C-alpha cells in the first residue's frame, strides 16, 4: 500500500492530533512531515477550524494538497488561494441556532463564514476558544447581524452543559442539518451529510487521485467519517474509544508525544524508502 510514497496523501486533523496541547507544532512532527514530502509524499490537513484559524500555521510547514476546513464544509487550495468546494447551512438553521441559544443562556458560540469568525454569544468559554484559535472575532448582537454563507455553528460550554445541549437537540426535530461533537466542550451544527469524510470523498473527484492512497489521522468523533473513508488510518493514544475502534493503527504516542511523526515513520517503514527511515 505504501510502496510508492509519491502516491501517498497524508491528511491529518489538527487539534489533538497534529497539534499538541500547547498548539505549537513539535519539531519532530515538522521534521517528519518535511522528510515525507522530500520523498514524494503529499501532506494536508482536515480541521474544524475555518481558514482564519488555520492559516497561522502554514508558515511552519508546507501543505502541498488542498485542505479541508469547517469540518468538511470547505475544500481550499492554499497555493491558488481559492475555495474548490463549499457547502453552507440552510437558511432555516438560523432558527435552530437561536432556539439553542435561547434555551441555554450559558452557551457560547460562533458562526463561521468565509471572511469572519462571527460571535453572537461571547462567553468565557468562547473567549478561550477565540484565544486558542488566535482569531479576531466579529462580535455581533444577534444572529441576524451575520451575513449569509454559514459553514457551521459552534456551541461551547462546560462538558456537563454540552451534554445537556446534545440531549436537547436529540429530543428536537432539527431536520435538514447534522450535529457533531468535535471536542468535549464543543458541539457543532453542520450542513446535512457534511463531514471531513464527505470532503475527502469530494477530493477524490476534484483532484483526480483515484490511483493514490489516502492516509488519515484524527482523534475525536468528528474525524470518524474521514478515518472510515481513508484507505488507511491512524489515531493518537489520546483518541476517543469510538475513534480507536475504526482505525487501522492506534499509535502508542499521544498528540503531545509526536503522534504524526510516529505515523509517518510507520508509513516510510513499509515503503520502498524504508532504508532511509
Protein architecture, described:
It is a single chain. By secondary structure, this protein is of the alpha/beta class. The chain has two domains: 5-86 and 194-276, Rossmann fold; 93-191, Hypothetical Protein, Haloacid Dehalogenase-like Hydrolase, Chain: A, domain 2 (2-Layer Sandwich). Helices cover 30% and strands 22% of the residues. It has nine helices and 14 strands. The chain has helices at residues 27-38, 51-54, 93-103, 124-133, 159-171, 196-207, 224-229, 241-244, 259-269; strands at residues 8-12, 42-45, 67-69, 74-77, 82-86, 108-112, 117-121, 138-139, 152-156, 177-183, 186-191, 213-217, 232-235, 249-250. Strands 8-7-6-9-11-10 form a six-stranded mixed beta sheet, sandwiched between helices. Strands 2-1-12-13-14 form a five-stranded parallel beta sheet. A hairpin with a 2-residue loop joins strand 10 (177-183) and strand 11 (186-191). The longest helix has 13 residues, at 159-171. The radius of gyration is 18 Å and the shape is globular.
